[in-house]
Every structure is written in C-alpha cells, then in structure tokens.
Amino acid sequence: MTEPSAxxxxxxxxxxxxxxxxxxxxxxxxxQGYAVDTAENGTEGLNKFAAEVYDLVFLDxxxxxxxGLTVLSRIRQADPDQTVVMITAYASVExxxxxxxxxxxxxxxxxxxxxxxxxxxxxxxERSRMLAENRLLRTEVAERYDFKSIIxxxxxxxxxxxxxxxxxxxxxxxxxxxxxxTGKELVAQAIHANSRRKDREFVxxxxxxxxxxxxxxxxxxxxxxxxxxxxQTKHGFFELANHGTFFFDEISxxxxxIQAKLLRVxxxxxxxxxxxxxxxxxxxxxxxxxxxxxxxxxxxxTFREDLYYRLSVVPIHLPPLRERKQDIPLLIRHYxxxxxxxxxxxxxxxxxxxxxxxxxxxxxxxVRELEHTMERILxxxxxxxxxxxxxxxxxxxxxxxxQMFSEEPVxxxxxEKKYISFVLKRTRGKxxxxxxxxxxxxxxxAAKIQKYGIV
Length: 455
Ligand SMILES: Nc1ncnc2c1ncn2[C@@H]1O[C@H](COP(=O)(O)OP(=O)(O)OP(=O)(O)O)[C@@H](O)[C@H]1O
Ligand SMILES: [Mg+2]
Fold this sequence. Notes:
By secondary structure, the protein is α/β, with parallel strands linked by helices. The protein is built from 20 helices and 16 strands. The longest helix is centred in the N-terminal third of the chain and has 31 residues, at 114-144.
C-alpha cells in the first residue's frame, strides 16, 4: 500500500486480477493524492473491504475466482451505501450496465484514459463523503430525540417513534387517536419536549371538562368588563401557549360554535380577546387527541370536516395494548422498577406463568390499567416474586368472558344485557368508554341501558 504523508483525498481499493491495471491505477491515483490499496482477486478484495473503510472500490467484472458481480453483491450486502465503480473491457458493457442496476455507481472501460478516471474518482469520493455526512447527521438526529418516557418496542411503536421524530420539529398539526389509556397525552408531551418549542409552554385543555359558556373566554381570554363577571382582564389559553404547544384533549367534545372560531384562528393565525379589538399574533403548535375516530362525528355533523383536516395534518393512531402484546412484559418491568424504587422495595421478579397471564389479558384500560394494576400488586402483595396467585381475580379469570359462558346458556338478549353490565362495571360506569369498547355510540348504549333496566 502506498500512503502519501499528507491526509489523503480519499481511500480507494482496486480489485483486479490484471497486475498491469492495478499498477496503472495505483500510480495514477496516488500521484493525485489518494490512498490506494489493491487486491488481485475477489476474495482478497472482500477481505480488504472488511478491514478498512473505502470511499471508493474499483472492481473488475471478470476475475478468475469470484466474478465482479458476486463481489459487488457481497459488498452491497455489507454496506448498501458503499460506492463501487466497475472496470470492464468494452466487450462487456452490458454486464457493466447490469452491475449499475445492482448498485454500482459507474463503470469505466478498458483501456481507460487518465482524465476519465479522475472525473469518475472525484465524483465517487464526493458521493461517499456526502453519504458519510448524512449518516452522521442521521445518528445525531436519532440521538437528539428522547422518547425514553414512552415504553414499547413492537412494530407499531417503532413506527410511532419514526413519525414522532419526523414531526417533532415541524409546526404541523397532529391528531392523536386511540383508546383511553393508550398514551395520547404522553405522546403529545413527548412531541413538545423534542421540538424547538420545548422551553415554552405546553398547555393542555380538556375540551370535555370546560363549560361551553366559558370556553371562549378560557381559550381567547377577555378584557375587563367585556361581560358580567369579567372583573379583570384575563389571558386565555391561546395566549399562554403562544410560541409553545397547545394540546386539545377530547377534541370531539368541542361545540360547533367553538369549532368555527377555532378554524378561523388557525387560518388567520391571530385572535382577539373577548371584548377586545386588538389582534394578537398566534404562533402555536396544535396537537389534538380523541378517544374515538372523528369520522363518525363528521358523518353525524357534530364535527366540522374542514377543521378535522386542519387538525390532522399528521394523524397518529395509538393501538390498544392488546394489539401489541410484546410491549406488555416491557411495561410490566418498567412499572415494577419505577414503583419499587418509589416504594423503596427491592426489585421484584415475575414468574413466567404470571407474565403469560398478564400478557394474555386484554387490558381494556390499556397502559393506565396496567400501571394501576402493578401499583396495586406492589402495595398489596408481600412477596419478592409475583406469581399467578398474586394477580387480581379479574385478570386470572381472563376478563370474565369464560366465566360468562360457563354459566347456564342464556338468550342473546340476556347475554347482551349481562355483557353491557360487565363492561360498564369495568369502566366504572363511564358510558363513553363503555360505548367505545362495545363499538356502539353513546345514544345506542343509553337506549340499551334503559331497555334492560341496567343500574
Ligand atoms: N407507552 C407507554 N409507556 C409508558 N407509559 C405509558 C405509555 N402509554 C401510556 N403510558 C402511561 O399510561 C397513563 C395513561 O396515559 P395517557 O394519559 O397519555 O393516556 P390517554 O391516551 O391520554 O388516555 P385518556 O384517553 O384516558 O385520556 C399515563 O400514566 C402514561 O404515562
Ligand atoms: Mg388523555
């Protein structure tokens, strides 16, 4: 190997069985300031490639042991970004084209001209520098984002992290849907925490807990005397969230009146306090969340379609825990570690039987239910190994379905009645949640509750 004393312009490997070609390329490229290694057959070439990082590999197509295409495919398997240029006699241009299809950057024909070679080399080295920089940037980007608070390694969670990474630094509105307890608010906070707005406010407003008549002044603020009871000027949530992130929770509960106003604010990027003439410029990132798909609400006319599109530039759906069971053991370990640390207990183990039962359970309340369940076990059970006997009965009874079917057979109506009562009990009487689980709307559920006299 010939190594010039100054920093080489790039590292090049020449793989060719013809000594003359190796020699010509080596002399020519070394003179130009490149560091050159040579190999006289495919096997030696692959060994050198495995031991050193090259900006460019020159690869002869026709060689006695491994032919060029085989070496090319091995190289690309090891590093799909490796820049490779084929060397070929004029007769095999077709094969060279085939090599380019398989990822070679270019090819040069034998015999070759020096200036032709130098153009190809500088192009190739520049490309590999650029790829290396991109790679560095990609790892830096990956390290910069921190989604540690969100536990999960299942494919849907990995996909979630990828979307969050892409969206965090933008201003795009995000609509997060998912059942109760799947982590919608957690994801919204993590997007904020990984954005440039992280040092500004994250303002969360639960649209279902706000009184309609006050919502407008809560959101926009009001000036003193603008209505009875407005004793002093108040800054609304929008003003508090300015330059930060605004999280609209339970967005489907916004009244049509407020939806219209919100749409105007988003379009015009400015708003006024109630009773004020002065416009305030608005720079907020809006993230919204909903337990249910809004499409049904749009169909029924309770949610504006135009607002929906404004709010859901990037839609994120959080799958229920039962659809990503491989995350359950991770979450269990996470909560055991977290809670035992908090309770100053030693680290607990979980028997494999107990872990299986916990993984098989349907977790209708998702991660929140799992968190509460683990907390309850840690408080109540005095053990250093959680076994199936330490689990609450509603889990060991496998959610009660089996229990239901083990009784005397009943009519469908009777079964429906029992099942609705069961789900209501599980949601602690929360009808919206129960309707969600049952896949019917609240009105239908209310009608059935009345029909069956469920209390
Ligand atoms: N992937 C996760 N990793 C760790 N903790 C999680 C995860 N998902 C949810 N949690 C935790 O579960 C609890 C519920 O999450 P969160 O409040 O974000 O759910 P949600 O979807 O907003 O529920 P709801 O619709 O009922 O408001 C929180 O304590 C949250 O920290
Ligand atoms: Mg929530």
